[in-house]
Write a structure and sequence with these properties.
Radius of gyration: 17 Å
Order of helices and strands: EEEEHEEHEEHEHEEE
Shape: globular
Structural class: alpha/beta
CATH superfamily: Putative cyclase
Largest sheet: 7 strands, mixed, barrel
CATH topology: Glucose Oxidase, domain 1
Number of helices: 4
Helix content: 10-25%
Number of domains: 1
CATH class: Alpha Beta
Distance between the termini: 6 Å
Length: 209
């Protein structure tokens, strides 16, 4: 049995979506200063690194992250490699094993972008039509290997709206670079932040045999 940590490490200076809060980590208490313990103070946005989006992210009446069905966070998931160079539409998904999969993780060339410094604008993203195809396929939790399913220059968040209106939860900011396509067990629990539209998460994949 093999365990893959598909989370992106939280660190100062890590890529964040332009306009989102930067990561700040400071030592509030330190043994070296004579304090009774080491205690870190963290400041970061809810969509930093590996995180989950809830429908409330773009829908005023949507479900917040603390109400995510926990059975979505743990269970069988499929990693599918998508060779699309930029946009994932219905044609890019055609012939791929995305049907009948509750938890689907899309592996693209994005995973290599985590080795670069700074935010990368040219990541692979999902079109509204591609999103509609995944809704029709029955996906309930969708993962992608950069900070958003949405294209950097998208207007009006069409992919997010298509997915979140269908009640889907989105696992964004994962790193699938070391993970072969196939079926796994996903273990992914977001921070239980009351009323939030999203939250950072630790995400693991475990081989089924």
């Amino acid at each position: 049995m093999t365990l893959y940590d598909i989370s992106v490490p939280i660190r100062e200076g890590m890529p964040v979506w332009p306009g989102d809060p930067e990561v700040r980590i400071r030592r509030a208490l330190a043994l070296a200063r004579g304090d009774p313990a080491n205690v870190s103070a963290l400041s970061l946005g809810a969509h930093t690194g590996t995180h989950l989006d809830a429908p409330y992210h773009f829908l005023e009446d949507g479900v917040p992250i603390d109400q995510i069905p926990l059975d979505l966070c743990v269970g069988e998931a499929r990693v599918v490699e998508v060779p699309a160079p930029v946009a994932i539409g219905p044609a890019a998904l055609e012939g791929l094993p995305v049907g009948g999969c509750v938890r689907l993780l899309l592996k693209t060339r994005n995973s290599s972008l985590w080795r670069r410094e700074g935010f990368q604008e040219d990541f692979v993203f999902l079109t509204a039509e591609g999103a509609a195809s995944l809704v029709a396929a029955g996906v309930r939790l969708l993962g992608i290997d950069y900070l958003s399913v949405e294209g950097y220059r998208a207007v009006g968040a069409p992919a997010h709206l298509t997915l979140l209106r269908a009640g889907m939860f989105l696992l964004e900011g994962i790193d699938l670079g070391a993970v072969p396509p196939g079926d796994y067990e996903l273990l992914c629990l977001p921070l239980r932040v009351t009323g939030a539209e999203g939250a950072p998460a630790r995400a693991l994949l475990r081989t089924l045999r």
